[in-house]
User: Fold this.
Amino acid sequence: MARAALKWRMDDLSNESKVSKTTIYSFENGKDTYTSTIAKLEAAILATGKIRFEGKCVCLID
Assistant:
């Protein structure tokens, strides 16, 4: 999981993505999530420059 790889708490991802912790929790537990919400989460994670996504793989960038 990208959030864990970044050592981010749910609060960190929520602050960076502007997505509520409740929504993040639901997404991480497999609940249906709007495409626009997923895009916000992805953008926040990619903005760190430390993570890239390749298919289903979460890859750390050295």
About this structure: Strands lie at 51-54, 57-60. Residues 35-46 form the longest helix (12 residues). Residues 6 and 48 are 9 Å apart (CA to CA). The chain is about 50% helix and 15% strand.
